[in-house]
From TrEMBL:
Ranges of residues in domain Transcriptional regulator LacI/GalR-like sensor: 98-258
InterPro entries: LacI/GalR-like_sensor, Peripla_BP_I
A molecular function (GO) term: transcription cis-regulatory region binding
Residue spans crossing the bilayer: none
Protein name (Swiss-Prot/TrEMBL): Transcriptional regulator
Assigned keywords, A-Z: DNA-binding, Repressor, Transcription, Transcription regulation
Keyword Transcription regulation carried by entry: yes
Organism domain of life: Bacteria
Length: 262
């Protein structure tokens, strides 16, 4: 949010923050509200409903009314007329898998958040592609999906780590899961990275403060917001012709949560 504000505030723009919480229906209500209020532009991280539905029709209506729309973090298929700023999520996960392999890990698992979210699906595909490219076995039992709350994520991970054949490293896919994974491993009496190496995703300040400091994949959140807001202003001003499709790279921050097996 701070990246967006640094661009909009100096230009005298005020913005309405709509927290949709992965709720397709709530998003629909908010888009209609914004259209009714005659906003000059919409910055959105769009979501998908459980059945795959989305609010593309309303975004198209905004475009029809000449209201600039810019997607950030996520996109919707078939919306080529809308500019976007996203992360190369597949490349981000590749960095984590490559780092683990370089340290001797070949039994890799991944914990994924809500199924159907664009970013999570891209990270899943990135994991599969990276393992194939680096000749690492893909064990589907080590892929935990739809870990949307603490209880479900903890139970699934604990079950996996108590199994006879378990991974020696886990990749997380967001900050929420970073915290759940670390807490679950500690509760089980396992040591990080002695018993399990962890590569997190996102770079909240606590990742550096926990013991051991967590190796994480950092996405340039402020840059995503800043660039998205800059594109939107240029579309409001009419100074941009072609729609922009900006894809940013992640950075692997190597700390102390990955053990060296070779």
């Amino acid at each position: 949010m701070s990246g967006i504000e640094t661009v909009l505030f100096p230009r005298g723009y005020k913005f309405i923050v709509c927290d949709i919480g992965e709720d397709f229906e709530k998003e629909r209500v908010y888009i209609k509200l914004l259209l009714e209020r005659g906003v000059e532009g919409i910055l959105s991280s769009p979501c998908q409903g459980k059945d795959g539905r989305n609010n593309s029709k309303l975004y198209r209506e905004a475009v029809r009314r000449n209201i600039p729309v810019v997607f950030y973090d996520r996109i919707l298929d078939g919306m080529e007329r809308i500019s976007s700023v996203t992360l190369d999520n597949r490349q981000a996960i590749l960095q984590g898998v490559l780092h683990l392999k370089e340290n001797g890990h070949r039994k890799l698992g991944i914990v994924l958040h809500k199924k159907g979210i664009y970013t999570i699906e891209e990270r899943r595909m990135g994991f599969v592609e990276a393992c194939k490219m680096l000749d690492i076995e893909i064990n589907t039992d080590w892929i935990i999906e739809n870990a949307v709350d603490v209880e479900r994520a903890s139970m699934s991970l604990e079950s996996l780590l108590r199994s006879d054949r378990r991974p020696d490293a886990i990749i997380s896919t967001n900050q929420f899961l970073n915290e759940v994974i670390v807490a679950t491993v500690r509760r089980m009496g396992l040591k990080i990275p002695g018993d399990l190496s962890i590569v997190g995703f996102d770079d909240h300040s606590m990742n550096e403060l926990i013991e051991p400091p967590l190796t994480t994949i950092r996405q340039p959140v402020k840059d995503i917001g800043r660039i998205a807001a800059t594109i939107m202003l240029s579309e409001i001003d009419g100074t941009r012709g072609e729609k922009s499709k900006v894809v940013l790279k992640a950075e692997l921050l190597k700390r102390k949560s990955v053990s060296k097996l070779i």
